[in-house]
Amino acid sequence: MGAATQVLLVGLLLLAAGLPAQAARVDASEHQAFWLWAGVTPQPVLAQARTLYVLQGQIDGPRRAGNPSARMQAQNPATPRLSKEVELWVVYRAHTLDWNDEVFALLLSQLQRWQRSGNRVSGVQIDFDAQTLRLDRYAAFLEDLRQRLPRQYRLSITGLLDWAGNADPAALNRLAGVVDEVVMQTYQGRHSIAGYQRYLPSIARLQLPFRIGLIQNGEWQAPDYLQSSPWFRGYVVFLLNPSEPATDTPAARR
User: Fold this and answer.
1) 3-state class (DSSP) for residue 248
2) Which InterPro entries does its entry note (predicted)?
3) What distances in angstroms separate CA 48 from CA 29, 36, 44, 184, 236, one per listed residue?
4) Longest dimension (CA), the chain
5) Which helix (H) or strand (E) holds 35?
6) Topology classification of domain 23-249
């Protein structure tokens, strides 16, 4: 091998070493925590689940102007009995924070119903797309909810990538004193968020327990530094029906 060829090969190897690793597709069979949403058919992979986030209801705003009452729409009326080994989070998708006493009471009764059915209910998760600049209002809502929840139930929330990069640190610290975990979503709708990697360093610096939410078959490349965070608790995979392939989308929600 000539000297010129050797130099060329060394250059190519150095170039390859500097390239980022190719992102893989999220294989649900490699994980043990899942979101099970309304309309999604249970998959065999659920047999290996150790943590399940099951959508129970959706809280919508008033149907018409002048009616201030929020309402809850059932999303998963059945209450199956899961294995005692499965940690269950009952999830509520919220489109408003203006809850009335009836909504709070219904949420508590549903938690107790899951518990009476023999399930290992860890707590409730709120899935609300709080705007980054309005996190203080969201924190106030969560503080109120925390006070209403019986002590045996923990409180989880989903989080947007934009929180990590652009939120007021004081607002995030306020959440840390209220919620037991935040699951940061790296997807929007049924799609991985393009450029999610630039938010990960900020997420790794969070000072509250967090997980990373992935979309089944979506894109994900785990950075080495994520595992070194003492607050990192692993991944949650949002399951899709086979007819709903995940793709990439332009940017994170704000």
Assistant:
1) strand
2) DUF3142, GH
3) 8, 14, 8, 22, 13
4) 83
5) strand 33-36
6) TIM Barrel (3.20.20)
| Euclidean distance between CA atoms 16 and 111, whole angstroms | 52
User: In this predicted model, what pLDDT tens digit does every residue of 54-105 receive, in sequence order?
Assistant: 999 999 986 545 555 788 887 776 666 778 889 999 999 999 999 999 999 9
Q: Which long-range contacts (CB under 8 A, 24 or more apart) does 66-70 make?
A: 68/98, 68/100, 69/100, 69/102, 70/96, 70/98, 70/99, 70/100, 70/103
Among the residues of 26-69, which ranges form H helices?
none
Residue 245 pLDDT: 63
Task: Say how far apart CA 144 and CA 70 lie, in whole Å.
Answer: 16
**142 and 178 in contact (C-beta within 8 Å)?**
yes
Nearest to 233 by CA among 32, 88, 78: 32
What is the per-residue pLDDT for 189? 86
Q: In the prediction, which pLDDT does 67 show?
A: 53
CA dihedral 59→213→35→123, nearest 10 degrees, is -70
Measure the N-to-C terminal CA separation of the chain; round to a whole number of Å.
55
The CA–CA distances, whole Å, from 250 to 63, 117, 194, 224 equal 32, 42, 5, 25
Give the domain ranges of the chain. Answer: 23-249
pTM (two decimals): 0.85
Say yes or no to pLDDT of 171 above 90.
no
**Residue 51 near residue 86 (C-beta atoms within 8 A):** yes
Which of 57, 48, 117 is CA-nearest to residue 82? 117
